[in-house]
Design goal:
The protein is mainly α and 213 residues long. It folds into 2 domains: 50 residues, Homeodomain-like (Arc Repressor Mutant, subunit A, Orthogonal Bundle); 138 residues, Tetracycline Repressor, domain 2 (Orthogonal Bundle), CATH 1.10.357.10. It is 69% helix and 0% strand. Helix 1 crosses helix 4, helix 6 packs across helix 8 and helix 10 packs across helix 11.
């Protein structure tokens, strides 16, 4: 059995386990690693959670509950831009969370469905969007952001010491693209991957104009 670390509470609770996930990071949050971090047996964890999947869902709920969600907006476009910025900030602040969300798609965390409901209702009640249109734009915006973060993290994991842009350039060198396309992608990299994501968000919002009331 592990030994309780200095300053650890004598009575383990679910919040301790959730915070251990955030400390270790979603990629490294196995039940073995969490038990070691908390100084307890794995059996102690299962008094509070039934599986690693439940643990990850619970940790996602905590991340979203604690992340700032208020921002100013006076138009639907400002609101959707704010949602995109919040989602980007949320995911890049917790490496591995974007990939985790894909593994939990069959049983999404409660906080994700609540956030979707909240955002949809803002578009519907404040800016008179039809609910189906609001849902399709929000879903696309979230998928775009999560996919960009996830692919960026996967790319960086192949050469963590090189940095994202260097790792991407190495991938470009191996891709055997035409010189014209390679040059265009190199310009994108020079501006940074976050800027590229922002361009995609703006393109999506330009298209959303067709659905706006």
């Amino acid at each position: 059995m592990g030994t309780r670390g200095p300053g650890r509470p004598a009575q383990l609770n679910r919040a301790d386990i959730e915070r251990a996930v955030l400390t270790l990071g979603f990629n490294d949050a196995t039940t073995t690693a969490i038990a070691r971090h908390l100084g307890v047996d794995q059996s102690s964890l299962y008094r509070h959670i039934s599986s690693r999947r439940e643990l990850l869902r619970s940790a996602v709920d905590r991340v979203i509950a604690e992340h700032p969600r208020e921002f100013a907006h006076t138009t639907w476009r400002e609101y959707l831009t704010g949602v995109a910025e919040m989602t980007w900030s949320l995911l890049v602040s917790h490496p591995g969370m974007a990939a985790t969300l894909y593994t939990l798609e069959d049983t999404p965390p409660r906080s994700i469905t609540e956030l979707t409901e909240e955002s949809t209702q803002v578009l519907h009640r404040t800016y008179s969007w039809a609910i189906p249109d609001a849902l399709v734009v929000l879903d696309t915006l979230t998928d775009l952001t999560a996919d960009t973060v996830n692919r960026t993290e996967r790319l960086l994991s192949t050469a963590p010491e090189a940095g994202t842009e260097r790792a991407t350039r190495d991938l470009l060198d191996r891709s055997r693209l035409s010189p014209e396309l390679t040059d265009a992608l190199a310009q994108i990299l020079d501006a940074g991957l976050e800027q590229w994501w922002r361009r995609k968000v703006n393109l999506l919002l330009d298209g959303a104009e067709r659905l706006a009331p």
